[in-house]
Amino acid sequence: MQKVRMIAQGRVQGVGFRWGVYTLALEIGGITGRVWNNDDGTVEILAQTDSSATMAKFIQEIRKGPTPFSKVTYLDVQMSNFSSYSDFKVAN
């Protein structure tokens, strides 16, 4: 199981970014986790999947910006170890 923690910087709040990440996870399939806004203007994503190819595609699409008005200027991606999720949700 691949688990990553991502922090997205740029125009990522107020542009539907979290819902775009959620939709992307569902469209790609096989990805579970959480996405939420941080107080510092970044968006944090915890994602897990069994496929390295699936994770690579997910990360690539997030770097592009999952919504038309979002713009990711920096994406920090780190392997992580967190509790497993059975679905993908937008967290508060």
TrEMBL record:
Catalytic activity as recorded in UniProt: an acyl phosphate + H2O = a carboxylate + phosphate + H(+)
Tagged with keyword Hydrolase: yes
Domain of life: Bacteria
Record SUPFAM superfamilies: Acylphosphatase/BLUF domain-like (SSF54975)
EC number: 3.6.1.7
GO MF annotation list: acylphosphatase activity
Residue ranges of every copy of the Acylphosphatase-like domain listed in the record: 3-92
Record-annotated active site: R18, N37
Keyword Hydrolase annotated: yes
Keywords carried by this UniProt record: Hydrolase
Family in the record: Belongs to the acylphosphatase family.
Name of protein: acylphosphatase
Organism the protein comes from: Streptococcus mitis
Gene name, Swiss-Prot/TrEMBL: acyP
